[in-house]
């Protein structure tokens, strides 16, 4: 494994499988009443969040704590960043505090990559702009594997605002590494120009793709990143690209429905679909902690897991 996890493309097939297998082992601990391992005792993990986040920030914090690391939570609001401190000066401060790993979420694509040049510890990208979110892709793959078994040849459909989604890009990269076949479905205005070079298919017809999908992953319509009109009305968007009960009926019996959260209920996904037995949305959150434990554990070179879990 590389020292940093910045892009899903940093992971070879073997690396990705090692993370997922390690997460499987660690999931056993999450089922116990005492969920803590001493593995990262004395190590420091800094969570550096420049953008709003609920589940990702809490998930990294829970993951580091379950491995007994010391956790420092830094959010840009209320810090010297609001006084104009640069990312580099913030990084040097963290470095002086001896961070072994820095988990960063930032509104600018490429910020984690820059940070990696300035700190000695491992950098983990927790979402940079519209670029990547590799641990989300790992927790999604982990969730699919638990429900469906190995991902080779599985058909995964990712639907919605691909243009603004770091989740979509990381998922396409990781899922193709793992041998799955990905199809993106979106209005042409919500697809990046570069999509032709991504390892996936593209379709504009959700109803045609659903019957052959093993997984349908809905993306949030990211209004906060939209500076223009990308579709006529919300109603029109839902009608063509929203997942409602009638559309779900086109899926085969074992197919699952995913969403990284936060959801716009009633827009990209109907509430009754989000809360149905096919939906893995709550599982994804729980699996996020286990998967991030595996990432921190492997990046920080924890001791032999076999000996720890017995
Ligand atoms: C995603 C994100 O922040 O990129 N959410 C998450 O990490 N759970 C997706 C989104 O915001 O829509």
TrEMBL record:
GO terms for molecular function: amino acid binding; aspartate carbamoyltransferase activity. Keywords: Pyrimidine biosynthesis, Transferase. Residues 3-145 form the Aspartate/ornithine carbamoyltransferase carbamoyl-P binding domain. Pathway: Pyrimidine metabolism; UMP biosynthesis via de novo pathway; (S)-dihydroorotate from bicarbonate: step 2/3. Its EC number is 2.1.3.2. The keyword Transcription regulation does not apply. GO terms for cellular component: cytosol. Residues 152-299 form the Aspartate/ornithine carbamoyltransferase Asp/Orn-binding domain. It catalyses: carbamoyl phosphate + L-aspartate = N-carbamoyl-L-aspartate + phosphate + H(+). GO terms for biological process: 'de novo' pyrimidine nucleobase biosynthetic process; 'de novo' UMP biosynthetic process; amino acid metabolic process. L-aspartate binds at residues 83, 166, 220. Carbamoyl phosphate binds at residues 55-56, 105, 133, 136, 261-262. The keyword Transferase applies. It comes from the Bacteria. Belongs to the aspartate/ornithine carbamoyltransferase superfamily. ATCase family. Heterododecamer (2C3:3R2) of six catalytic PyrB chains organized as two trimers (C3), and six regulatory PyrI chains organized as three dimers (R2). Catalyzes the condensation of carbamoyl phosphate and aspartate to form carbamoyl aspartate and inorganic phosphate, the committed step in the de novo pyrimidine nucleotide biosynthesis pathway. This is Aspartate carbamoyltransferase.
């Amino acid at each position: 494994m590389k020292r940093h996890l910045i892009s899903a493309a940093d992971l070879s097939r073997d690396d990705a499988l090692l993370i997922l297998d390690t997460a499987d082992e660690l999931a056993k601990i999450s089922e116990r009443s005492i969920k803590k391992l001493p593995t990262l005792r004395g190590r420091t993990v800094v969570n550096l969040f420049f953008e709003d986040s609920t589940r990702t920030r809490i998930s990294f914090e829970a993951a580091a704590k379950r491995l007994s690391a010391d956790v420092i939570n830094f959010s840009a609001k209320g810090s010297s960043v609001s006084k104009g401190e640069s990312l580099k000066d913030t990084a040097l401060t963290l470095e002086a505090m001896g961070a072994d790993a820095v988990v960063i979420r930032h509104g600018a694509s490429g910020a984690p990559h820059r940070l990696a040049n300035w700190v000695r510890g491992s950098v983990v990208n927790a979402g940079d702009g519209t670029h990547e979110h590799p641990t989300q892709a790992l927790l999604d793959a982990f969730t699919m594997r638990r429900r469906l078994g190995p991902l080779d040849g599985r058909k995964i459909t990712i639907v919605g605002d691909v243009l603004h989604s770091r989740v979509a890009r990381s998922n396409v990269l990781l899922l193709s590494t793992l041998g799955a076949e990905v199809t993106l479905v979106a209005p042409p205005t919500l697809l990046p120009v570069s999509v032709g070079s991504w390892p996936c298919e593209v379709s504009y017809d959700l109803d045609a793709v659903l019957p052959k999908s093993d997984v349908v992953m809905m993306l949030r319509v990211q209004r906060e990143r939209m500076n223009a009109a990308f579709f006529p009305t919300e109603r029109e968007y839902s009608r063509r690209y929203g997942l409602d009960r009638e559309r779900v009926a086109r899926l085969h019996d074992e197919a699952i429905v995913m969403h990284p959260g936060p959801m716009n209920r009633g827009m990209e996904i109907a509430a009754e679909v989000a809360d149905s037995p096919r939906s893995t949305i709550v599982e994804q959150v729980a699996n996020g902690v286990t998967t991030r434990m595996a990432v921190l554990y492997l990046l920080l070179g924890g001791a032999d897991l076999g000996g720890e879990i017995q």
